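User: I'll paste a sequence; please echo it back and then give the predicted structure.

Assistant: Echoing your sequence first, then the prediction.
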Amino acid sequence: MIDLDNKVALITGSSDGIGKATAILFSSLGAKVAIVGRDQSKLDKVAAACEAKSPHHYKPVVIKADFVRDEDVVRTFEETISVYKTLDILVNNCGLSSKKGFGEPDAMADYDRIQQVNVRAVVRLTELAAAHLKETNGAIVNVSSVASLKSVSSNKIALKKTKSLNSAFVFSASWSYCMSKASLDMFTKCMAGKLAPHVRVNSVNPGVTRTSFARHIPVAEPLDIANLIAWLASDAARNMTGSIVVSDSGFLCDDPYRALSEK
């Protein structure tokens, strides 16, 4: 059974998609959450849903931030701790996709932006949170991607004929995105060893998830991934650390997607 009652959780990228579903689920399980995103109106809606679902009617800490800026990463942590004074769970969900192919104009500037949000911000936030998480024997869940495990060329071949799939996922499987998520997987493993035995660190690697980017195909719902994140963050998964947990509707074996691409 997943028990997050009165746990304090910082969930980045929680204004939409997987992060939104995770924040609402954590709240429904009794957690106190801090939610982070770039869109204030979306954050306000998520905050209202969290409070409505909370058995204790907890109001989330709402933080508008853009992790392209290091100072926003630091401010996110400081605002969370200033309210809650402690931290049990860090969910590093914030991430950016890319629209630049290798060798295209401004590709390197785009690469730097992807690395800043998808890798550096996670490293910085983990560094800031580590001492607090050690005190609570807490958990970190990094939201990675199957793009860390399969090259961009293979992903494009598998998906290029899938008319029902929005092209945004093809963009998100670009070379720079794949590299950033592979880095995140290795960071997960390194931190699992570094922070043991006090803090568990795991990664969830979704495939295509039904968000505003992808509709009308048989893939995971955000809540499916949120349930896995909640389980990994809870004591139910107390024996797991350093794991790269794939939840991809069979994407890596191609079959569920090949049928769609051949239509």
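The mean pLDDT is 87. Residues 88 and 136 are 6 Å apart (CA to CA).
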